[in-house]
Specification:
By secondary structure, the chain is α/β, with parallel strands linked by helices. The protein folds into four domains: 160 residues, Molybdenum Cofactor Biosythetic Enzyme, Chain A (3-Layer(aba) Sandwich); 44 residues, Alpha-Beta Complex (Molybdopterin biosynthesis moea protein, domain 2), CATH 3.90.105; 86 residues, Molybdopterin biosynthesis moeA protein, domain 3 (Beta Complex); 72 residues, MoeA, C-terminal, domain IV (Beta-clip), CATH 2.40.340.10. 18% of the residues lie in helices and 29% in strands. The protein has seven helices and 26 strands. The strands form seven sheets. The chain has a six-stranded mixed beta sheet, with no helix packed on it. Strands 16-13-17-21-20-18 form a six-stranded mixed beta sheet, with helices on both faces. A hairpin with a 5-residue loop joins strand 8 and strand 9. The longest helix has 19 residues. It is elongated. The structure holds adenosine monophosphate and magnesium ion (MG). Adenosine monophosphate (AMP) binds next to helix 3.
Length: 407
């Protein structure tokens, strides 16, 4: 049977997933995890004035050629105070607080610990002072009107700080996609129930809902449907009616009860691929109906999560206009040999370690249903197909799906 390669499949998905919506405005406090839809520029210089970085004295550095030196204290300026008339004359110093504007005439701030006489009319400077010391000059961090963030960036903690610093509120964000999630299979019961003999809890539904949230989209769980063509078509119709992306799990293999691809086709979904040269995820189905992206993922939860990372996450991010829809790909050295698949790229869970040279330790067993060992991974090792064993020490591409845990 002919199988489509991973890169070609990914290209097909990204091609169909081009950005399709305009931005919407949300309050900054609600913007975390969303994607910025427009470039953001600064409305201020940062800092907005020459700012003292220490509590101490604003001085002329040329006055303190050879310490110790005594200077006359001619004023005081605190954070938030405006002292337009205050000037540091030769031989003089102004008491200053962290965050206060440096008065005219001063070109350095000497920290209080290196002086004696704080609060007195005269101060003794005990240490040498260099020009510019402990001053953050106006616009040193950011110039007014300069770009701060680009459209397509994800709003994380640091980006929230930047948006606050430039007063960007409300924030233009990509409208989060609504993603319908349907689990299929006669044996599947809701996860909160105790499964009977020969039943399985729905693991894919909750796992994919979490994965959808992680890419900043909104999961719309549509429940579990049995292996029945009509029921499958009905729930597909509900999903297509309400959502931007439709995910089904299970029912995509070649078994007699695997109705998903046919049901999608009968529901007017144009199918772009149905079989891939990857492991896990060989029976992954991708299609579109108008603007809606549709994925049929394997029912095995590990396979569903891997194919989500490989195709669904990039598709959702690309559709929302992400600057970088793909997870980072790093190179890492295998810590142990692996036996590749003959004809399919194997996306094997691994754990990254090391600092100077990244190493990657495979953690998953060849059993793709092993949800426990795969959960310990933070990356997918792309093991290229081939007949020969790949020795320890070989450098391979790894797709980073979580930040390395640091241990
Ligand atoms: P399928 O893709 O329908 O052939 O399912 C492959 C395997 O995954 C079977 O052992 C199913 O019982 C199991 N499976 C299917 N859907 C789910 C699900 N939602 N949660 C947990 N396991 C599932
Ligand atoms: Mg099934």
């Amino acid at each position: 049977m002919w199988l489509l390669e991973y890169d070609k499949a990914l290209r097909a998905v990204l091609e169909k997933a081009r950005a399709a919506h305009g931005p919407q405005m949300v309050p900054l406090t609600q913007a975390f995890g969303l994607l910025l839809a427009d470039d953001v520029r600064s409305d201020v210089d940062l800092p907005p004035f020459d700012r003292a970085m220490m509590d101490g004295f604003a001085v002329k550095s040329s006055d303190i050629a050879i310490p110790p030196v005594e200077l006359e204290v001619t004023g005081r300026v605190g954070a938030g105070e405006e002292r337009a008339g205050l000037v540091v004359e030769p031989g003089c110093a102004v008491e200053i607080m962290t965050g206060a504007p440096v008065p005219r005439g001063a070109d350095a701030v000497i920290q209080v610990e290196k002086t004696s006489g704080f609060g007195r009319p005269r101060v003794r400077i005990d240490a040498p002072v260099t020009r510019g010391q402990s001053i953050s000059p106006r616009a040193a961090v950011l110039e007014k009107s300069s770009p701060v963030l680009r459209a397509g960036q994800r709003i994380d903690v640091a980006q929230t700080a930047l948006l606050a610093a430039v007063g960007c509120d409300p924030v233009p964000v990509a409208r989060p996609l609504k993603v319908a999630i349907i689990s299929t299979g006669d044996e599947i019961v809701p996860h909160a129930k105790t499964p009977g003999v020969s039943q399985i809890r729905d693991v894919c539904g909750p796992a994919l809902a979490a994965a959808v949230r992680r890419v900043g989209c909104l999961p719309r769980p549509l429940g579990i449907v049995g292996d029945d063509p009509k029921a499958t078509r009905d729930v597909i119709a509900r999903g297509l009616a309400c959502c931007d992306v439709l995910l089904l799990t299970g029912g995509v293999s070649a078994g007699a009860r695997d109705h998903v691809a046919a049901a999608l086709f009968e529901s007017g979904v144009e199918l772009h691929f149905e079989r891939l040269a990857i492991k896990p995820g060989k029976p992954t189905v991708f299609g579109t109906r108008a603007d809606t992206l549709v994925f049929g993922l394997p029912g095995n939860p590990v396979s569903a999560m891997v194919t989500f990372e490989l195709f669904v996450a990039p598709a959702c991010l690309a559709r929302m206009g992400a600057a970088k829809p793909l997870a980072p790909v790093w190179q890492a050295r295998l810590t142990q040999k692996v036996r590749p698949e003959k004809t399919r790229t194997w996306f094997l869970h691994g754990r990254l370690r090391g600092r100077a040279v990244l190493e990657v330790e495979p953690v998953a067993s060849p059993n793709s249903a092993d949800i426990v060992s795969s959960s310990m991974g933070d990356c997918l090792i792309a093991v290229p197909p081939g007949a020969r064993e790949i020795p320890a020490g070989t450098v391979l591409d790894v797709i980073v799906i979580r930040r390395p845990s640091g241990d």
